[in-house]
Amino acid sequence: MDIVNQLVAGGQFRVLKVPLGFIKVLEWVFAIFAFSTCGSYSGSFKMSVECRYRSDSNLKINVEFEYPFRLHQVYFDAPTCKNGQTERFFLVGDYSSSAEFFVTIGVFAFLYSMAALSVYVFAFEKYRENNKGPLIDFGVTCVFTFMWLVSSAAWAKGLSDVKTATDPEEVQQLIPACEQEGNQCREVHDPVMSGLNTSVVFGFLNLILWTGNLWFVFKETGIIAPFMRQQPAQEKQPAPDSFAQGGYEQRDPYAGSQGGYQPDYSQPGYNQGGDYVQGGYEQQGAPTSFSNQM
Fold first, then answer.
1. Are 27 and 47 within 8 A, CB to CB?
2. Distance CA 266, CA 104 (A)
3. pLDDT of 183 higher than 90
4. Would the pTM count as exceeding 0.90?
5. Cis ω on the peptide bond leading into residue 68 (within 30° of 0)?
6. What is the pLDDT of residue 128?
7. What is the mean pLDDT of residues 75-98?
8. Residue 182 and residue 82: Cα distance in Å, rounded?
9. More confident residue, 199 or 57
10. End-to-end CA distance of the chain
């Protein structure tokens, strides 16, 4: 118990709140539903063969089948409607390959999801230490994504064939007595296939989960990190003191040698100290009084 408490105390369970860990939990759960609904299935159907002579009839022919759906090994006894004799018949088809392949992928996905969750919780820093962990995780996730696609599609086709092979109306065609005039064959109970239908649904749900998880595992590899960095903002260049670049120089428009106005500071009445005397008008800095008014 102390070891368990230490592991729980040292675990980083916050990783289960982020998509990388949360989707792994869903993959773990959905894998259980996928392989359990298929691998634990057992079903049956019933038929009746009513002969012209009632004593030869059998109104409760029960046919049972189960995973891995080697139907060619499933048999039942039906009356021949001749002197109370019976004959043994076998179902048609062997669909164990697609069913076992689907269950195998589900079991391995369950085991890998559990192992990956353990690494996320108890060794997440080491997982991201040298980038090998995310790369391995990404590669395995790609493989399982493809395997879920193949196994789910194969099992969906296999299930369709199983439904056809276990349809009482199809099985009645195997009984010669049902084709004789005066005899009547009918189905009493169809097999319940809801569990197998659910397994196919969980197979494709696992495909969606593992496909979506590819992005979050890929981000942990760091391959895309250089492309996601924000470009540094360009520093604003200071305004130039002069426009002397490129052979261009801004000049004073009033300092030109041709057609420009150049004031003559030696004219009488102009004082460079700021005093301008003209016709009785005196200005120092700013006008304060007017001595001559109209």
1. no
2. 109
3. no
4. no
5. yes
6. 81
7. 90
8. 12
9. 199
10. 115
pLDDT of residue 140: 95
Query: How many residues are there in the chain?
Result: 294
Alpha helices (runs of H) in 167-287, residue ranges in sequence order: 168-171, 194-220, 225-228
Question: Does the pLDDT value for residue 112 go beyond 90?
Answer: yes
Q: Are 34 and 199 in contact (CB under 8 A)?
A: yes
Q: How far apart are CA 95 and CA 164, in angstroms?
A: 12
Q: HSE, CB side, 13 Å, CA atoms: give it for residue 202.
A: 25
d(CA 148, CA 101): 10
Q: How far apart are CA 75 and CA 62, in angstroms?
A: 10
**Average pLDDT value for the chain:** 79
Using CA atoms, how far apart are residues 95 and 107, in angstroms rounded to an integer? 19
162 alpha carbon, distance to own chain's centre:
30
Q: Identity (one letter) of the amino acid at 70?
A: R
| 77 and 63 Cβ atoms separated by less than 8 Å | no
What residues are paired with 62 via a beta bridge? 46
Instruction: Quote the CA–CA distance of 117 and 20 in Å, as a whole number.
Output: 10
pLDDT of residue 236: 53
pLDDT above 80 for 294: no
Q: Reduced to 3 states, what is the DSSP secondary structure of residue 45?
A: strand
- Name which of 215, 211, 199 is nearest 30 in CA terms: 199
What are the structure tokens assigned to 176, written together?
A: 């010669």
Per-residue pLDDT tens over the stretch 129-148: 878 888 999 999 999 999 99
